[in-house]
Amino acid sequence: MSNNDWQSEQTKEQGKKNILWGAIWCGGGTVVTVVTYSIASGGGTYLVAWGAIIFGAIQLIRGLMQLQDAKPPLTPGGENKEDNQNAADYCTYCSERLYSGMVYCPHCGMKVNT
Fold this sequence. Notes:
Layout: H1 3-39, H2 50-69
Helix pairs in contact: 1-2
């Protein structure tokens, strides 16, 4: 597993955690708001848990963005690196275009797999 694959997997796992915790916070804040509003419907005060709702929404959005970032990078042709039939034409680390005879990638400096 290359370093990019490992980072992508870590980003995906962190994104899933952020989505879960964001949903818990947002849902919990909503439940607190609804319950206190129902109790106070006959007259009285109720609590709107804006902090929990907003914090949860931010975490949820952050997690979705992390999942989006964890997708495999695209080659300049538009396909995923794994689907590329001519993988020797692109760097396996940064997806930059390589030309014949290159030993190192001019973009990231990694040795080209031959």
